[in-house]
Backbone:
């Protein structure tokens, strides 16, 4: 049994009505992930670990999420992560 994107959107709307905006954002982000294969989600999760990816790799993942899966919230999260990792020096180092 799997939950649908629409069900998560309905739950997000209810959360917003109850002034639970953070929960609503999380539900919408989860709704976007429904269309992405579990194996790809795990690959993305591993790519987001510190020192695992370059800026270019993270931006490519963001583009994939946005254009292939229409997961704009998650794509923005990945782009923000790439910038934070750059600022905190958490990106994979280029091999010599």
Residues:
């Amino acid at each position: 049994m799997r939950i649908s994107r629409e069900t998560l959107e309905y739950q997000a709307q209810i959360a917003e009505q109850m002034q639970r905006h953070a929960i609503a954002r999380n539900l919408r982000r989860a709704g976007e992930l429904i269309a992405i294969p579990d194996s790809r989600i795990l690959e993305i999760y591993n790519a987001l670990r510190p020192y695992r990816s370059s800026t270019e790799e993270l931006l490519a993942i963001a583009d994939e999420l946005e254009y292939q899966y229409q997961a704009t919230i998650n794509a923005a999260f990945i782009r923000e992560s790439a910038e934070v990792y750059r600022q905190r020096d958490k990106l994979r180092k280029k091999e010599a």
